[in-house]
Write a structure and sequence with these properties.
The structure holds two protein chains of two kinds. By secondary structure, chain A is α+β, with helices and mostly antiparallel strands. Chain A has seven helices and eleven strands. Chain A has a four-stranded antiparallel sheet with strand order 4-3-5-8. The chains are: A alpha+beta, B mainly alpha.
């Protein structure tokens, strides 16, 4: 009995220490970033899933982006083996997932850049149609993707990663726009390759976030009224509610408020 | 045995005997399995004695027979009263049936508890959720204490014990969900401690197994974090399980279990099973190893290790009379062997020839083991 009471006391103390004071971050997001996770008759609890985006898969990009070898080394990965070494593939294939802290920016420059990239892709596809390299169906699909991104896409973008959350917070001090959250990261080794255009691409190391450690956020019973109304319908025209979410001193989130949206914002 | 009670005389005289010595014998027995073993010994003794009397090899004088009979009568009565042992074969079969039913009932009740809570929790306020989560395992432990005093064989105590464990698992995991706590391997320690405390307090083997699994999870995950990985990915490297398994295998040798004679077997079996399974996986999946070697080299290394460890397990099991260990070692030795045969021959050999070769190898091994067994018998004699 002492074990049960002691363990629960410890857990609740940890929760209290996380939620004490002003907290680490406070953001107002919408259903676009915090959609409902799937509902079921067997589970009356309501959970929101934190939806976020990171740079595209490395095999489609020209390089590692901001999550490069330097970042990987800062996270403790051993990147000392030269990438052109024969043993490089074996060495880097042994890298295991690690815990790190990721910085997520909400509706900032990263999101505007993301949109701009999607618009450029549509533009490139349109030019491809004129040169008869792409079909009209490709153009329609690209336009549909851009439209969905503008109305429904998550505006929470991963912009940085590090081992020390305090250092990250110092670099990104705006607590209403940047979240520092624990995540699992992986090392990716891209071997050299030559594109269809004949351009040679050297090997490089890059990183990727596989998941946030707290991805699902429970909605307390006291706040579930609005959410319960939408539990069985998916968002398709636009977000239907806003969520105020706070991150505590242990970088663990909780829902502070939920309000309905009268109509989807433009 | 010729009849239900093998102590009925096949011939010979009887003489009365006091119960004093029977009471002393039953006092030195600490557990139900020891008591059952003693009863089986007694019944085996009488079956053999009757056989010897029928063959006129040994006939006890009437007085002696009666004294022994009375002593055994008293012993069995005391043991039945204290430990509720099975005296007849039918009772033994019933007991097994009751254990299986108890286990299935406990599993069903645990599942029901889980699903019931998930069904209602969204309708309760957070403080009430927390109170129910903390109260459920406490209530179950109180129930165990209540039942323990009223049962000689802990069928219902075991059932409620499993519920208590399930409630405690639910307690911590749902608290984690409610307050969005970052997952940690430390929960395994709490669960292991809870299960082991109940197992040792109430002498419950099912809870011991639950505790062992939680301990294995914690040790393997912690080793993974020491090697730099995020703990939830500890399964990506099966080597994390090997030290944990071997540690639990060695635990009974380091910590005596005089009051719990059955418990060491579980530590050994599950510890060895964990280590051998990890080695078997790495024998076929070298990419999953920490070793900075090509996958095929890793697989060869672990195949050799697999044969060595299972061979050692067979040897230790025979020498130290750890029967489960011998069986487990033999099973994994055979699996490793047949896996190698598959790797070497399956691709190119006609299938009927492949299976025929396996049969011939099995016959060869039987002949070898028969010869070894005879040699061991000669040496022992």
């Amino acid at each position: 009995m002492a074990l049960v009471l002691g363990t629960n006391a410890l857990v609740l103390t940890v929760v209290a220490s996380n939620r004490f004071g002003e907290g680490e971050a406070l953001l107002h997001m919408t259903e676009r970033e915090l959609p409902l996770s799937s509902a079921s008759d067997e589970n009356t609890g309501i959970t929101l899933r934190l939806r976020w985006q990171q740079q595209p898969e490395l095999d489609r990009g020209p390089g590692p982006g901001w999550f490069d070898q330097a970042k990987l080394e800062a996270l403790g990965y051993d990147c000392s083996v030269p990438l052109t070494d024969l043993s490089a593939k074996l060495h880097y294939s042994k890298a295991t997932p690690r815990r790190a802290f990721v910085v997520l920016e909400y509706e900032g420059d990263a999101w505007r850049q993301w949109l701009a990239d999607a618009e450029r892709e549509v533009q490139a596809t349109a030019e491809g149609v004129q040169r008869r390299e792409s079909s009209r169906r490709d153009l329609q699909s690209a336009n549909d993707r851009l439209d969905r991104l503008r109305k429904l896409g998550s505006r929470l973008i991963a912009v940085d990663v590090g081992a020390d959350p305090d250092q990250l917070r110092q670099a990104y001090p705006d607590r209403t726009r940047f979240i520092v959250a624990p995540a699992e990261v992986n090392l990716i080794f891209l071997r050299e390759w030559t594109g269809k255009d004949g351009i040679y691409h050297p090997p490089y190391l890059g990183g990727r976030m596989s998941q946030l450690l707290v991805q699902y956020i429970h909605a307390p019973t006291e706040k579930r009224g609005v959410l319960a109304h939408y539990a069985r319908e998916r968002m398709y025209l636009g977000p239907r509610y806003t969520v105020t979410i706070r991150y505590g001193h242990r970088y663990e989130p909780w829902i502070v408020g939920v309000e309905p949206l009268s109509q989807p914002p433009s | 045995m010729r009849n239900q009670d093998p102590r009925a005389p096949a011939g010979g005289l009887h003489s009365p005997r006091t119960g004093q010595q029977g009471a002393e014998t039953s006092k030195s027995i600490l557990s139900r399995s020891q008591a059952q073993h003693r009863v089986d010994q007694i019944q085996g003794f009488w079956a053999e004695l009757n056989q010897l009397e029928e063959e006129a090899i040994l006939v006890l004088p009437h007085g002696q027979r009666e004294r022994v009979n009375s002593h055994h009568d008293t012993t069995i009565r005391e043991l039945a009263k204290q430990f509720d042992v099975d005296i007849t074969a039918s009772q033994k079969q019933m007991s097994w049936g009751m254990r299986i039913v108890s286990f299935l009932g406990a599993l069903a009740l645990a599942a029901s508890t889980f699903f019931f809570f998930y069904r209602i929790w969204g309708l309760l306020s957070t403080p009430i959720q927390v109170l129910i989560l903390i109260g459920a395992p406490l209530l179950a432990v109180v129930g165990m204490e209540f039942l323990r005093k009223r049962e000689r064989i802990p069928y219902f105590t075991s059932l409620i014990g499993l519920i208590a464990f399930a409630c405690f698992v639910l307690n911590l995991s749902v608290l984690g969900s409610i307050f969005n706590i970052t997952p940690s391997q430390n929960a395994f320690v709490a669960w292991a401690a809870f299960a082991l405390i109940l197992a040792y307090t109430y002498d419950l083997q099912l809870l011991l197994v639950a505790g062992i699994f939680c301990l294995l999870g914690f040790l393997s995950a912690t080793l993974g974090t020491w090697c730099g990985m995020y703990w939830l990915s500890f399964g990506v490297r099966p080597e994390n399980f090997i030290p944990a398994g071997l540690l639990l295998f060695a635990l009974p040798s380091l910590v005596p279990h005089r009051r719990y004679p059955e418990f060491p077997t579980y530590y050994r079996l599950f510890g060895l099973l964990t280590a051998l399974l990890a080695i078997l996986i790495l024998s076929n999946w070298g990419r999953g190893s920490y070793l900075m070697l090509p996958a095929d080299e890793v697989e060869v290394l672990y195949q050799l290790l697999g044969f060595t460890v299972s061979g050692l397990a067979i040897l230790m099991g025979i020498r130290l009379h750890w029967h489960g260990v011998t069986t487990l070692g033999s099973a994994f030795f055979a699996i490793q062997l047949y896996t190698k045969f598959f790797d070497w021959w399956w691709g190119w050999m006609p299938k009927y020839v492949f299976f025929l070769v396996l049969v011939l190898i099995a016959i060869l091994l039987l002949l070898v083991f028969r010869r070894l067994r005879a040699r061991i018998g000669e040496v022992t004699a």
